[in-house]
Design goal:
globular; two-stranded antiparallel ribbon; 460 residues; mainly alpha; 6 strands
Length: 460
């Protein structure tokens, strides 16, 4: 018979053995986590190095070195002075005016301005370059490599299981089919009005249509108008639409809650409607055709022809572009037509980024890819309204673009290496944005602990 002390010793030995196994398992897990972190850091640094080189090449090609720009301005200024000195003896009055011009030029140069709007736009970084520049110079946000990798793996899982697919757009009940005659103009109308649906904290009710909120409430309202035989997708109608007409079309379920920025929406409709009628025979399809299958050309056409899509900012002395609505417009055309016909763009993957709004950053914070400074987090929790174009707002949106671009590169590499059977044709920033946006809507309660930034703007 085994003595009690022997049994106790065996129990203690078993507990020690179990504890050793648990300890070893924890060590293995820590080693794996460190390895994953090191791999993620290595991939991010590699990507960052590649993009840094591309950015410098772009700057040299399109802007020149900072020293070169300064030298050119100095040379041009000296040339102007010499010309005016020669004119001094013959005509003093024009010369005084010219000297005033040079003085003003010098003041603007020293202040770091020297920026007419057109010069700035010509020297602007595209959205992808802007995201990288913003993150590189950010003060209030940080990108966390492990979180980016975590996001990438979640997207890969969605691709492998089939839950994440470009076909999801046309399968949604609110969206048109590519065979429907009104599809293209419906998309253009929706993305003209697709901005600022959030409700201030002191407002008890959200704007809802057919029980839907936000973007889908807009879709429901437009579809309701069409069922009621209102020719809402026709620019001949909305180019001169009255406030009371749009107010009725966007009427909420409770009949009292108003959609935010109603007057701004009317201005946007008048602006784009008149331009479509003047230059494109009242059909957005003609704008798409004018781009000749180039997403880059279509993006430029949209922001040039329709200023209300011109989502730009000055950040750290650089003109940056976000172009949320312009890009989502191209993304919706691409998704509706499933990358065929009017939805086929040969340069889409290298041009279109994610669509930087006020909801997607919640998901990026949740996955640990985006980190807010204590100051920024405190302001967001206190419902401080950020101005469109201010540093903190630009940093949040720029970081969102950068994170998705890095995640995209990780996804493409891992699918190529580990899942060669998977087609990469539709693996792009649009697909990742669809994942992020759908994840936010499906997990709204879970993500409520993360505040979203609030901005009154027609751009998103």
């Amino acid at each position: 018979m085994t003595s009690p002390s022997t049994g106790i010793q065996q129990l203690l030995a078993a507990e020690k053995k179990a504890a050793d196994k648990v300890g070893e398992a924890r060590k293995r897990k820590a080693r794996r986590l460190k390895q994953a972190k090191d791999e993620a850091t290595e991939e991010i640094e590699k990507y960052r190095g590649e993009r840094e080189k591309q950015f410098k090449d772009f700057e040299t090609k399109h802007v020149g070195s900072r020293e070169g720009v300064a030298q050119k301005i100095d040379a041009d200024t000296r040339l102007k002075i010499e010309e005016m000195n020669r004119a001094l003896g013959s005509n003093k009055e024009p010369c005084v005016c010219a000297w005033a011009f040079v003085f003003a030029l010098g003041c603007r140069y020293k202040a770091g301005i020297l920026q007419s709007f057109e010069i700035n736009r010509n020297m602007a970084l595209n959205p992808k370059q802007s995201g990288e520049f913003i993150v590189k110079n950010a003060k209030y946000v940080k990108v966390q490599d492990v979180g980016v990798r975590n996001l990438a793996h979640q997207v890969i899982e969605g691709i492998l299981t089939g839950s994440l697919d470009i076909k999801n757009f046309t399968q949604h009940e609110f969206h048109p089919k590519p065979t429907e005659k009104h599809a293209m103009n419906w998309i253009f109308l929706i993305d003209t009005l697709n901005f600022c649906f959030w409700t201030k904290g002191d407002q008890p009710n959200k704007w809802k249509v057919d029980g839907q909120t936000g973007y889908f409430a807009l879709c429901a309202a437009i579809n309701r108008a069409m069922r009621n035989s209102i020719d809402i997708t026709n620019p001949q109608f909305y180019a001169t639409i009255k406030k009371e007409q749009l107010e009725e079309i966007l009427k909420s379920d409770d009949g009292e809650t108003k959609v935010p920025l109603l007057d701004a929406r009317i201005e946007c409709l008048h602006q784009v409607g008149k331009k479509l009628l003047e230059k494109y025979d009242g059909n957005f399809e003609n704008v798409v055709k004018a781009a000749e299958g180039s997403a880059e050309k279509l993006l430029q056409l949209i922001v040039d022809e329709f200023p209300c899509f011109r989502d730009e900012a000055e950040f750290k002395g650089q003109h940056v572009t976000i172009y949320k609505r312009a890009q989502i417009l191209i993304g919706d055309v691409y998704a509706c037509y499933q990358a065929e016909g009017l939805g086929s763009f040969h340069d889409l993957n290298n041009t279109i980024t994610m669509f930087a709004d006020y909801r997607v950053p919640q998901v990026l914070v949740h996955f640990g890819a985006l980190i807010y400074s204590d100051e920024l987090m405190s302001e967001l929790k206190n419902d401080k309204i950020l101005k469109n174009g201010e540093e903190k707002e630009v940093e949040i949106r720029g970081a969102s673009i950068y994170i998705v671009e890095v995640a995209k590169e990780i996804i493409l590499r891992e699918l190529t290496a580990n899942h060669p059977e998977v087609s990469l044709k539709h693996v792009n920033s649009i697909l990742i944005d669809h994942f992020l946006w759908d994840y936010r809507r499906a997990n709204a309660e879970l993500l409520a602990y993360i505040p979203f930034h609030k901005t009154f703007s027609v751009y998103y």
